[in-house]
UniProtKB/TrEMBL annotation:
Protein's organism: Nonlabens marinus S1-08
UniProt-recorded name of the protein: Peptide deformylase
Function recorded in the entry: Removes the formyl group from the N-terminal Met of newly synthesized proteins. Requires at least a dipeptide for an efficient rate of reaction. N-terminal L-methionine is a prerequisite for activity but the enzyme has broad specificity at other positions.
Annotated residues for binding of Fe cation: C105, H147, H151
Pfam families: Pep_deformylase
Reaction equations catalysed: N-terminal N-formyl-L-methionyl-[peptide] + H2O = N-terminal L-methionyl-[peptide] + formate
InterPro entries in UniProt: Peptide_deformylase, Peptide_deformylase_sf
C-alpha cells in the first residue's frame, strides 16, 4: 500500500526515532509499504519517520544512480545491486574527506542543495530478519545511508546547509508545510488545514 509521505514541518520528522524489536506489530507489512511508497515517489531512500512512524527503520536502493555515465562499470554495478533494509542502525564512524553532492528529500519536494558529508560511513544495523551487521560503505551508497540515518535522528538535509542558503529557501519550506507544492506522489502536510 502506498503511504502518504510526511511533509516538512511535521513534528515526527524532528523526533529521534525509537529502536524496535522483532515483535514490532506488522513489521513485514510496514516494510513492504515503505518499499512501495519509495518506488512510487522515485526515491532512493526512505526512513520510517517520513511515513509518520518514529522508529529506527530506513530503506536504501541506489539502483537509479547506476546509469551515470561518469561512473566506472564497477561503480555502476555496485549501485545497481545495492538494496538494503536498515533497522536499529547506529553510525560507528564517518571517515574520509567531506565531499559535496546535490541532495533532495521526498519530505521536502522541489528543494535541492549541495550538502557536504564524509566519504565513508561504518554502520551497525539489523536487516529485515534482525540479523546483525557492521559494514563500511563509501561514495553514493554512504551518502544515501547518511541522509536516511539523519532522518531517524530527527535531522534534515536542510540543517546541513549555510545560514544564507537556509534564508533563501525559507519561503519554499514554509509553502511545503502548508501544502503549497506540486508533487506526483501522496503527501501529508502539517499546516494544510486537513488537506491530505
Amino acid at each position: 500500500m502506498i503511504l502518504p509521505i510526511v511533509a516538512y514541518g511535521d513534528p515526527v520528522l524532528r523526533k529521534e526515532a525509537e529502536e524496535i524489536s522483532k515483535d514490532y506489530p506488522k513489521l513485514k507489512e510496514v516494510l513492504e509499504n515503505m518499499w512501495e511508497t519509495m518506488y512510487n515517489a522515485a526515491g532512493v531512500g526512505l526512513a520510517a519517520p517520513q511515513v509518520g512512524l518514529p522508529i529506527r527503520v530506513f530503506l536504501v536502493d541506489t539502483e537509479p544512480f547506476s546509469d551515470d555515465p561518469d561512473l566506472t562499470a564497477e561503480e555502476q554495478k555496485q549501485l545497481a545491486d545495492f538494496k538494503q533494509t536498515f533497522i536499529n542502525a547506529e553510525i560507528v564512524e564517518e571517515t574520509g574527506d567531506e565531499w559535496s553532492f546535490n541532495e533532495g528529500c521526498l519530505s521536502i519536494p522541489n528543494v535541492r542543495e549541495d550538502v557536504f558529508r564524509p566519504e565513508k560511513v561504518t554502520i551497525a544495523y539489523q536487516d529485515e530478519n534482525f540479523k546483525e551487521h557492521t559494514k563500511t560503505f563509501d561514495g553514493l551508497i554512504a551518502r544515501v545511508i547518511q541522509h536516511e540515518y539523519d532522518h531517524i535522528e530527527g535531522i534534515l538535509f536542510t540543517d546541513k546547509i549555510s545560514g544564507l542558503k537556509k534564508r533563501l529557501i525559507k519561503n519554499k519550506l514554509s509553502n511545503i508545510s502548508k501544502g503549497k507544492t506540486n508533487v506526483d506522489y501522496r503527501m501529508r502536510f502539517p499546516d494544510a488545514k486537513g488537506r491530505r
